Structures are given as structure tokens and as C-alpha cells.
Protein 1
Amino acid sequence: MTQPETPGDAGHCGDPRSGGDLRAAALADPAMLRGLTQARFGRRDLLRFAGLAGGAAFLAACGVSGEKKDSTGDDAASFWKDRTKAGTVDFANWPLYMDVGSTDADHPSLDMFTKETGIKVTYREVIQDNESFFAQIRPTLAADRSIGYDLMVLTNGITLSRVMQLGYLAPLDHARLPTFAANASPSMKNPTYDPGNAFTIPWQSGLTGIAYDPAKTGREITSYDDLFDPKFAGKVGMFGDNQDLPNLALLGTGVDPAKSTPDDWKKAAAKLTAQRRDGIVRKYYDQSYIDALAGGDLWISMAWSGDVYQQIATGTNLKFVVPAEGGLLWTDNMCIPKTAPHPVDAIAYMDFVYRPEVAGMLAEYINYITPVPKAAEHVPADLAKSTLLFPSDDELSRVSRFRVLTTDEETEWNRIFQPVYQS
């Protein structure tokens, strides 16, 4: 499936590492395989680079005439009535986001699912970013036709919220998700962006916090305020986005993003503006921050947990910390289009991956935070001990979700925060 060109995403979605040649090379080197998943962070919500206003404008521009607005979706009981197993499921996912075997097309966990259930999985790595994928499928969903997939993975953020608001997702029948109920981490249940997991359950997650080189900083880093220390002037990296940057800044000023007000936003933006004015920030980064950090251009930076784990796995002297003020938790989510021809098969797979041994198979290759804590019993010891893949309860108690904004709030949020990194 050809992906349309998306504004604000140049040089990121087209990461040349996401292909068969790289995966084939990785098979010979497990450490390299772990490193390859770095590209996934560059394919999270496009809002990191376009900003919330740009993302909202893009989605609005791609609207479909006659499209239903603000639907809460069909009633679950009505949707699932008389649905039966078909023996097949079509799964749309991101590149390098599934366990692999001896060849590119070999996915042991999918093979296990088929052997146990008789359901054949057609697996496609067709999602390069949330918004361009939605732009492709939106007209078909609006016409109430099948998009060719029974299951897809979307990141929490404006795109997923829009898909839910438009009534394009099947409401989940939690009676069909007993393994999810039994094994999912409490931190992955009832998220603010989808109360009660009405339409989604997590695939994998990651943390936004701080990474640093202790040999360069000369001390351990523990606080958000360390990013503002004049001793590190010109060696500090911040994200040039309108999601991670503002939300972490709110936490840094002692405010829960979910409860924040425009006055809180102005205070956080003022602190960021002073950081830039005083020459402390070297640059506002996209994915390239990790190369600058590993190469010594940066000593300390905002960071995503998966990136840092992959650098540590290759021997780089970096550390990742959730600052004392708190960090951020984002999640990629499995969901079923309301027009899916095989929803019973799709929801059977969703529940299947919450078995600890299956979640372990996925975690070993994906290297993100698994939603199943007991998966730690089914991965190599080095992975099981990594708090970047299996955060402690204490760490998870100190992370927050992104602020969910109304349309009116988006305008004010953009006006306050975009000048920080676009000036």
C-alpha cells in the first residue's frame, strides 16, 4: 500500500532503515535487531512535528462530505450480535513491530495463533504514521465499506480521538477479552483517551523522560530542572514538538497535564522560552536527538525510553530517568474498524497477545513497554531486568498521559506553545 506524502513528516516516515534488508541483517545480530526498532518512535503521532493545529487542519482538510461527526460508536451488544468466527484476520501494523523468525515473513507468534485457533493472519506493515494512514482509509470508512483490515494499531492522540469521535471503531465486547482483563497492567486499563477501553486495548507503550551521559554531566540527573542548568548550556536537547514538549513542561512546573489550565500553559511556556533565551538549549530535536546524545553533541536531553534502551544495548554510556516531577506515557493501541468483515477473529487475536508467553515473544523483539507485566517471566534475563521495558510500579506511578484537548483548547495551546520552538 503506497503511503501519501504527509505535511510536517518529511525525512522521518521514510526512514531507510525500515525494510527487509535491515531486518535480514538484524537476524544475525540480536543487539542490532533491538536497535532497529528505533525507527518506530519517529512514526508515532505526526503532531510531534506538525503541531496540534497542523494535525487538526490536515485532518479537517481530508474530511469527507456527509461524514458523521462526534459519534460515540455503535452499542457493543448490537454490534457483536450474531457475529461468528470466519477463520481469517487482516492486520495492519507499523514496520518492525512484530516478532520475526528466520525470514521477514516468519512471525512465530502469529504462527502460534493460527495453529491454536485455526485463524489465518494476513499481516501487513502498512502504517508509516497515524495521519497519513487515516487519510487513506477515511473515505472508505465514511462510505461504510471495509478498508481491507480487521485490526489496526493507532497511537493515542488527535488521530485516534478523531477516529473514535467519528464512530469508525467497533465497540469492544469485553466478555471476549478475558485474558486482557486478567493480565493487563493496571496502568494500561481505562486510559483517559479511551475510558473503559471502550474501543482500544494497548499494543505497546513507551516513556518520555530524560536521557544523559553521566561522564559528561558529571553527576546523576534526577529532576526536570536539570534541563535548565546553566552548567549544561549549549548541551541540552529538547523536543521540537507540540505534544511531548508542552506536557513534560507542565509536569516540570508541578502541574498534572490532565488538570492544567491556560494559565498553567503560559507559565510552562515562559519557563521554556527563558531556557531558549539563556542559550541553554542547543536545538529543538526530532528523532535525531539520540544521535546527537550518543555522539556527545548533547550531554542531556528529553528522550524516549526505547531509544535509550537500544543505545545501551549497543554499549553506549547513556542513562534514562523519569524525572522526580514525573514523565509521560504514550501507547499504541489495537482497534477494530467498524466495517471489519472478520471482527470475531480480530478480537480473538487481541486477547491472545495478552497471554504472558506471547507478550514475551513480542517484547523480546519489539523492545517497548509490554502491557503484560508477567511477560518478564518469558524473556531473556537482560530484558527482564530492564526498567525501560518493564518499568517498576514506582516509575509508572510517576508518569502521566498527554493532555486531551478540545478543539477550542487546541487553538489556545498552539498559540502558547508553538512559538517556543518555532521562533
Protein 2
Amino acid sequence: MNGALTRYRVIAWIVGVMLLLLTLVAMPMKYFGDNNLGVVIIAPVHGWLYVVYLAAVGDLARRVQWPVTRILLVALAGTVPFLSFVMERRTVAWIQGNDRQPSFTEA
């Protein structure tokens, strides 16, 4: 299970960074700079990485037997900027059996 959690954590960060690049760099370049190169490159990469993210969520959920609502919540976190980072921390807390909300100062 530790391997599945590690894979999930890594892909959650990668997907989160790619989504931030898409929304904070590529989209403004497209609409304000009339240059869609960033969207053409980053959007498909984020899309495929999101599929890998969904596979990692599915694998982790199967191993820890999450309810469907939790699976959907974690799966959708990869589509909202910054939420994948928050949900990654929350998921670690759920897996470690610590249901309280972790603070960002904890390692």
C-alpha cells in the first residue's frame, strides 16, 4: 500500500503543477497574448497525466477500500487548481488513520 500511496502523491503533485501551468501561464498567453502554443502543448500533457492520476486514485482506493464518494472527491481534485495539493495532504491523513485536517507546517 505504501507504493500505491507514493505513486498517488507523486502524480497528484505533477497533475497539480501542470494544471497551474495551464491556468496561470498557458491560458493567459492564449487570451491576452494571442499565443496558443502553451495551450497546445500543456493541455494534452495535463489530460494524459490526469488519466494516470485517475489510475493511481483507483489503485489506492481499491487497496484501502474507500467509499465511492471519497473516490469521486479525490478524483475530481485533479481538475481544480490548487485542490490536488490540498487533497494530497488530506489523503495522506486518511491513509495514516489520522482524520484531523493536517496543517501545512507539518511534514
